[in-house]
Design goal:
Strand order of the largest sheet: 3-4-2-1-5
Low-confidence stretches: 122-126
Radius of gyration: 21 Å
Number of domains: 2
Helix content: 25-40%
Shape: globular
Structural class: alpha/beta
Largest sheet: 5 strands, mixed
Length: 247
C-alpha cells in the first residue's frame, strides 16, 4: 500500500482532476480491503515495505539455470560426499535448489548482510537499501531503512525453509542492528515453537564504529523445521547429517 502511494507521488502532477479522483477512490477501496484483512487475521508481527530487487524484474522473463563448469571441478573419491559451489545471486541459487533438493537439506547456515550501512550490500541492484521505491534516498539513521533489509531476508528465508528436511535446522548470523527484526520474521516463517536457541558468538575485538561500548560479539539464531524431530530435550548433531548448505 505504501509502495503504491510512493509511486503515485511521482506521477500525480500529470493527472487531471478527474483522474486524481479515480485514483483516490481506487486507493480508498484498497485501504478498506486491507483494514478488513487485518481485522480478520488479527495477527501480531512485522509490517514493512516490500521493496523490489533487480532479480524480480529479470525473473519475469528468465528462469535461473545451474550450469556445471567442469574445468573448476575438484575430483573426489567415489563414494564420498559431493560438494557443490554455486556462484550467483543467492536468491537464484536457493530457487534452483528447491527444484532438486526441496525437503532434503539437514543443515543450512546463512550469513546475511548485517545492515550496518550501505557498504555491506554488494548485490547486483546497487540501489537496494539505498533508495525507497519512489527514488528517495534512505539515510543510515532512518528507522524505515529496516524495511528493505526485512524484505530481502524474508524472501530468502522462505526459500530456505522449503529446502529443510523434517529434521533439518537453520543457523542465521546477525548482530544488534537487525537481531530483533530477524527474530520476529524467523518466528513468523519457521514458527515460534521451532526456535531452538540463540548463540552468542565472541569476536576478536570491538568494531571501530562502536560509539559507546566496544562490541565484541554477534549472534547466531537457530531454528528447526520441526523441533519435535529432535532428540528428547537436546538438539544435537550426529553422523547422520546428509546435506548442508552455506549461504
Amino acid at each position: 500500500m505504501l509502495f503504491k502511494l510512493m509511486q503515485m507521488e511521482k506521477d500525480y502532477r500529470n493527472l487531471t482532476q478527474e483522474e486524481l479522483l479515480i485514483k483516490i477512490k481506487e486507493l480508498e477501496k484498497e485501504v478498506k480491503k486491507l483494514n478488513n484483512q487485518i481485522i480478520k487475521d488479527d495477527r501480531y508481527g512485522l509490517n514493512w515495505i516490500d521493496c523490489p530487487e533487480a532479480f524480480e524484474e529479470e525473473s519475469e522473463n528468465k528462469i535461473p539455470i545451474l550450469e556445471e563448469v567442469k574445468g573448476k571441478a575438484i575430483s573426489n573419491d567415489d563414494g564420498k560426499p559431493t560438494h557443490i559451489l554455486i556462484e550467483g545471486d543467492n536468491y537464484h541459487a536457493l530457487t534452483c535448489l528447491n527444484y532438486t533438493h526441496k525437503g532434503k537439506i539437514d543443515v543450512i547456515y546463512i550469513d546475511p548482510p548485517y545492515n550496518i550501512g550501505n557498504s555491506d550490500f554488494t548485490y547486483k541492484d546497487k540501489n537496494f537499501l539505498m533508495e525507497y521505491p519512489n527514488g528517495k534516498p534512505i539515510k543510515k539513521d532512518d528507522p524505515l531503512r529496516h524495511s528493505s533489509w526485512i524484505s530481502f531476508i524474508n524472501k530468502r528465508l522462505q526459500l530456505a525453509k522449503d529446502l529443510l528436511s523434517d529434521r533439518g535446522v537453520i543457523f542465521i548470523s546477525i548482530d544488534d542492528n537487525e537481531q530483533a527484526n530477524l527474530k520476529l520474521i524467523s518466528d513468523s516463517i519457521f514458527g515460534e515453537k521451532n526456535f531452538v536457541t540463540q548463540f552468542i558468538r565472541k569476536g576478536s575485538g570491538g568494531r571501530q564504529d562502536s560509539k559507546h561500548y566496544a562490541i565484541i560479539h554477534d549472534y547466531i539464531l537457530c531454528y528447526a523445521k520441526n523441533i519435535n524431530k529432535g532428540t528428547s530435550n537436546n538438539y544435537h548433531f550426529d553422523n547422520q547429517i546428509n546435506s548442508c548448505i552455506f549461504v
